[in-house]
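subagent[fold] <- orchestrator: predict structure for attached chain, return tokens only, no commentary.
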Amino acid sequence: QLQLVESGGGLVQPGGSLRLSCAASGFTLDTYVIGWFRQAPGKEREGVSCISSVDGRLYYADSVKGRFTISRDNAKNMVYLQMNSLRPEDTAVYYCAAQKWLRFRLCAPPSFGSWGQGTQVTVSS
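subagent[fold] -> orchestrator:
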């Protein structure tokens, strides 16, 4: 069974950092694209960052470029999102999701079929 479990969320002050982890089971990352998405209250779910384990290509939303870094460890079947210089507007539930590389189109929610349950990130003083 394909499963994704996020962890690492929490409360952090503006300007601080967090690292989110996505643990994958039931499949191997080497043929999948993994994405990080977020949804704030009252807003639509949006793509944050995606990584292809086939060719290593990376995708970032304009709002997080230069602040967030996505990475993977195929041997551990893990994907990470390092978040630096956090802002209050980064507050959201963060989800990881998976899609087979051959079906990948865009780093956006409609392109992904398997989802984790999410982890809360709150940026506040």
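orchestrator: received. Logging for downstream: The two ends are 40 Å apart (CA to CA). The chain is about 0% helix and 50% strand.
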